Structures are given as C-alpha cells and as structure tokens.
Amino acid sequence: MQTTPVRRVLAAATLSLPAWGRLPCFALAVILVGVGAGACPAGEDGFRVESEVFINNAEQPVARSLTLFRGGVAWDFLAPPAAKGGNTSGDKGAADRDAAGEIVLHDPARERVVLVDPARNIKTQIDAIRLERLSVSLAAWARKSDDRLVRWAGGPDFGEGMTESQERIELVGPRVRYAIEFSTPASAESAGVYRRFADTAILLKALVRPGGLPPFPRLAINRRVAAAGGIPTEVSLEIDSRVAMIPGRADSLRCVHKFHPRLLAGDLSRIEEAEGRVAAAASVDLAEFAATPLPDAE
C-alpha cells in the first residue's frame, strides 16, 4: 500500500527533526536561503529552517520541509519530491506551494500538535499528554525487548557511547551510529525553541508511523545539542541492514538543515494562509487522517 506524504516525512523526523522531521523528522544538499531583500525581523523567536532528507547516499532528496518559528509556535510545511516535469523556474517557494504538502502546527502553549492535509481539507489534533504517555509506554517496552539494539535504544543512559566536540556529537550503539553536526545561532533562545520542536516531531513520528527505532537516543542527543546552545545542521543515522526493523528500510539516512535567523516577508503570508487552513479544515481522528493514501508526486 502506498504511504501518505505525512507518513514518509514523519519517518525521517527520527533524524531531524524533527517534522515533520520535516521533522517527525525525514529532519537535507543544503538549500540556500536569500539574505537580502525580503527578509524581515524575526521578533518573538522568529526564524526558519529548510531541510532535505537523503537515503543511502542518494543525490536527490526523498523529502523536503520548511519550518517557520514565530510567536512561540512552529509551522512545519512538508513537501514531497518535485514532480517530474514540474516547476523548473528555480522558485522553491512556488514549487513548495504546488506540492500542496501537509502542514504540522506545533503549539506548545496549548500543548497540542495539529496535522493538516490541505488536499483533503481535514485535520487531526494530538495532545501533548498523548505523546508523553507514548514515551513512557514505549520506553518500558523497549527495555524489555529481546533485541539488543531495541533494548539499548530504550535508554535511559547513553553516556558511554556518546562523544562530543565543539560542533559535533556522535552516538554509537549496537549496530547503529548517529552523528550530529550543529552550529550556534545568534539567539541563544532559538536552540531551546528548536529542541522542543524536534523532540515533539520525533515522538509524533513514533505515534503516526510506528515500527522504527525507539526515539530515545535522538532525544538524548537533542538535549546535548541544546545544552551546547546549538541547532543541528546535519544529522545522519546508519543502521546495520541485517537488523532493519521495517522491510525495505534505508541503511542510512542523512538530513541537512539550513538555519536562517530571520523570517522572510513571504513567510508571514504563508503562516497567515496556514492559520486559515487550520480553521477551515474538518476535524477527524488520527486513524482516519492517516488511513487514506494520497498519490505520490510522479
């Protein structure tokens, strides 16, 4: 059965971050963001992160996302790979809009995440308490697993396998290796904001698309990166294919993130449009939201 774009992107959120990681979450060659005309002051922790996800050393990304942070919330715009024969103008904004990908609203003040499918005009809401309960039950299950890798990924301690340098963290476990490169944003607050988004995106992936590695190694890395005041710029995960937990799972995933300390003028209108879509979409439960596959962009 085909998977929906939201499922594809959330699978990658294990790396990102995140989103869905855009974050949870396929979280990328680097997308360059213009710094000249069109930029506007961020205000209220406003910044943007563009992400791309690659599998098994492929040259073309399997997923792209744009995450906009403003006013205490994060808007995650998920887009499938560009359609063949599609937009070739080089206008990535136009290409993203043509893709009509899903939208994820991370709203920590209201302790909720809202998933929106603009194509079907539906949405579903997931409360923070549901993700917290998932985390507790998933950890308890993993720590009792007969599989050494799953048991290790249940945590809680990853200190022995973790090495750190000024801008890189590596975590090695049984038949698995995480490597995170990060940089320090101009605003120290941005690191904490991004970490909250990334943690939520990873747990969201575990809920919507279960079956991968437990999220706790990545959550531990997120804590270390945020403690260093950083935001990930590249994340990679390598796993022994002999222990792949999902048939056809990639042996390696790499996510590249481009951080920009300001929102662009067009970002504000995109957020406004997304707010309208959230308000207009019909509410459904998570099972119905994820059940109906959408056609791949071919």
Write a structural description.
The chain has helices at 5-12, 92-99, 128-143, 148-153, 188-208, 216-227, 265-280, 286-291, and strands at residues 39-40, 47-55, 63-70, 73-79, 103-107, 112-117, 122-127, 162-164, 168-173, 176-183, 231-239, 252-260, 263-264, 282-283. The relative contact order is 0.22. The chain starts with a helix and ends in a 7-residue tail after the last helix. A 12-stranded mixed beta sheet has the order 8-9-10-11-12-2-3-4-5-6-7-14, sandwiched between helices. Residues 1-43, 83-99, 244-248 and 294-298 have low confidence and may be disordered. It is an alpha+beta fold and 298 residues long. Strand 9 and strand 10 form a beta hairpin. It contains 8 helices and 14 strands. The radius of gyration is 18 Å and the shape is globular. It has one domain. The chain is 31% helix and 28% strand.
